[in-house]
Amino acid sequence: MTTAQLDGATIGYTERGSGPPLVLLPGLGCTRALWEPQIDRFSADHRVIAVDPRGAGDSSPLRGRRDVLERQAGDIAALLEVLDVGEAVVCGVSFGGVLAQLLALNHPEKVKALVTVDSFSDTRPRSAAEAVNLVLLYATGWLWLFPGLMRPGVRSQYRRWPAARAYMDAMLTRMRRAETVRIRYALNAVRYTPRLPAVRCPTLVLSADDPRLQPMSRRIAEAVPRARMETIPDSFDPSNRCNPEEFDRRLAGFLAEVGG
User: Do the Cβ atoms of 96 and 26 come closer than 8 Å?
Assistant: First the structure.
């Protein structure tokens, strides 16, 4: 276990390899272990830093309800300072993609290039379908306190992807429940789309081909000036686990483009 002592927080992380820095941020309820396949793959030619945000894994408790995401993004920026990382390619899946956007907005000097995966920038619906999805998210946030109630749905959702299903099933047992709920409700208030034109770094928006995820990713790609969107076929959130071969291929291509 590797941790860094920051001002007011302990942050767990995995660091492996050498070369251009690549920072990996996990999804809601997950830890940096979500990225194990990519840590193995990309540490051959990158300095990979996979992070547990505050409230997850080996990091400090997440207390209070104010500025939850801002504090987590600030922790990541501070960790990069401690590790003497000037700037990095920052890649986040789902909730991690939200933190990656916030890092690019609040600490742009740390983000050489941005990758969001199966993520979103806004929780205001633009269509009836989006409204239905968001209402379900709002109404079921409390379920994260009771993983036993979520397990049948998770197993059904991921039945096409056995490796992802095994990871997500284990995640439900290990996640820090109360803090995960606190983050879930903070995510319900995300309104980053109007700010995203300020993100000037090259940006890759990756989305699974699921129609529930595509519109939210497209919104990011439309708002960031130097962004493009690519679709991962036969996938779902988290794409790095559902279709790791295709995910790795897209990420490797982008890293080659940006020199990261």
Answer: yes
- Digit-coded pLDDT (tens) for 122-151: 987 666 566 555 545 544 444 445 466 667
- Pairing of β 88-93 and β 47-51: unpaired
Per-residue model confidence (pLDDT) at position 139: 45
CA–CA gap between residue 176 and residue 61 (Å, rounded): 9
The answer to whether residue 79 is domain-embedded is: yes
Neighbouring CB atoms inside 10 A of 231's CB total 17
Give the domain CATH number at 116: 3.40.50.1820
Query: Whole-angstrom distance between the N-terminal and C-terminal Cα of the chain?
Result: 26
User: Are the beta carbons of 199 and 105 closer than 8 angstroms?
Assistant: yes
Q: What is the pLDDT of residue 243?
A: 98
pLDDT at 10: 96
Rounded Cα distance between 111 and 87, Å, is 5
- Report if residue 118 sits inside a domain: yes
